[in-house]
Amino acid sequence: MAQHEKVVIIGTGPAGYTAAIYAARATLRPLVFEGFQPGGQLTITTDVENFPGFPDGIMGPALMEEMKKQATRFGTRFVPGEVTRVDLSTHPFTLWADQEAYTAHAVIVATGASAKWLGIPSEKQYQGRGVSACATCDGFFFKGLEVAVVGGGDTAIEEATFLTKFATRVHLIHRRSELRASKIMQEKALKNPKLEFQWHSVVDEVLGDGKAVTGLRLKSTVDGSTRELKVQGLFMGIGHEPNTALFKGQLEMNEVGYLTVKAPTTATSVPGVFACGDVADPNYRQAISAAGTGCMAAIDAERFLAGHG
Questions:
Q1: Annotated catalytic, 276?
Q2: Is 281 exposed, middle or buried (0-12, 13-18, 19+ CB in 10 A)?
Q3: Catalytic one among 47, 87, 134, 154?
Q4: Which residues partner with 240 through β-bridges?
C-alpha cells in the first residue's frame, strides 16, 4: 500500500527547503526527498556573501543546514535518497523511491541543475579552492588575481566579462579558433582589454599547491603539445544541465531540458505539479532567486489543494 501525502517535494537546496518551510507553515506536513546531494549545489560552495541577512557571509553548507532546521521545526519530514520514478498521468500522483511507492495530491519539483564539469580529478580536488562553476557567486574572491574561464558560448563570455570586474586578467580557454557565442557577445568580448584568448586549447590539468590553484596545464587541440598558464582561479563556462531526466515525456520542458512554467506562477504543464529553483531557471541560478520561487511553489500548491478540496 502506497504512503499517501498532501504535498511531496523532490529535492532540497534553497528552493526545496524554502518550499518546505512555507508548506509546513501552511500545515501541509510536506514530505521531502533529499536527493543524491542533500542541500544541493550550495553544499559544494564555500562562502556565500550575497544572501541577504548575513552581512559577514555564511558557508554554503551552514546556510543549507539552517534552512533544513527551520523546515523541520515547522513539521517537515525528510526522506534520504532519490525519487527514481514518477507517474504524473493520474491524480493523485505516484512516486517511487527505493522500491517504496508514495502518492501525493501535489508535487513540487526542486531537483536543480548540475554544472557541467571537465571530468578531471584535479578539478574535483580544487573545487571551492579556486575552481568554481559560478562567477556571480565567487568572482569577488578573485579581486586582483588572474583567472581562467573554459568555454566558447554565451555562458563562458558572460562569466568571463563579469570576472573582469574583479580579476586583473581573464583568460578564455576555447578548443576552437572561434567562439560559439552570439555575435554581439563576441564583439563585446574581443574589445575587452582584460580578456585574453587561449585558442585551440583544453585544460589538461589543474595545478595547485594542495591548498589553492596556482595554474593550469593546457593542451593544444592542434598538435597535442602542453604548456602552463599561471592563474589563481578556474571557472566553468560550459553550461548547466537541469536534473529533469525523471520527468521526460511527462512534464513540458524547453529544448535543453529546463521545465517550463506558466509565469508568473510555478505551475508546470501538469495541474498539481509545480517547479522551483534552478530546474526551471536557465537565467539566474542564484540561491536567493531559487528560495523566492520555492516560496511561490508552496503557495501555488496550497492554493491548488484548497481549490480541489
A1: no
A2: buried
A3: 134
A4: 115
User: What pLDDT score was predicted for residue 46?
Assistant: 62
Handedness of CA 179, 184, 185, 186 (dihedral sign): positive
Which of 138, 204, 281, 300 is an active site residue?
138
Ranges assigned E (strand) in 24-91: 31-33, 47-48, 58-59, 77-79, 85-87
Question: What length is written for the chain?
Answer: 309
Which candidate in 137, 204, 276, 300 is catalytic? 137
Evaluate the CA torsion angle 49, 54, 59, 62 in order and state its sign.
negative
- Identify which of 29, 39, 35 has the alpha carbon closest to the alpha carbon of residue 61: 39
Is 56 designated active site? no
Q: Rounded to whole angstroms, how far apart are CA atoms 16 and 32?
A: 8
Within 10 Å of residue 212's Cβ, how many Cβ atoms? 12
Percent of the chain topping pLDDT 90: 78
* CA–CA distance, 138 with 249 (Å, rounded to integer): 36
3-class secondary structure, 117: coil
How is residue 2 annotated by DSSP?
P
pTM listed for this prediction? 0.78
Residue 272 has pLDDT above 70, yes or no: yes
Q: Which residues contact 19 (CB under 8 A, 6 or more apart)?
A: 9, 30, 108, 110, 276, 294, 295, 297, 298, 301
